[in-house]
Amino acid sequence: MNILVRQLMTSKCLYTISMDSTLDVALKSLNANSIHRLPVVDNDGNLKGIVTDRDLRLATDSPFIQFETNEERMEKLKQHKVSSIMKQNPVTIEDYSPVVDAAKLMRVSNVGGLPVVDKNGKLIGMVTRSDLLDCLIKILEPVPPQS
To answer: Where is the CBS domain (predicted)?
Structure first.
């Protein structure tokens, strides 16, 4: 069984953010969409980086950013751009790659998701650990006998 990344990846409802967006916008997008990572793209859809919920937690927990309330936290986040904390050159995979390659790449890179890009570096999807687990469940779940 040779399952390809394109069969699992999320390509519809793909949430992204620009480098010039502020960190409060990134945090709101992650929370509103119940996701853990946002690919950072330019105006042409080319992948420039990735920002994760962990990156944002680390930014807000910084000893350099002092706050007392959620409102103050959001005000501080409004002062910083996504480009200041995004991971540049994130680990990526192409859509025609076997899913097993995505799993291996996530494991050795210790990431929970991979941006899926085309040959020109344009973002076309995301594949996550959850996608891989869903695939594993489908493979391992017993098929009920047919009458």
So the answer is: 9-67, 86-143
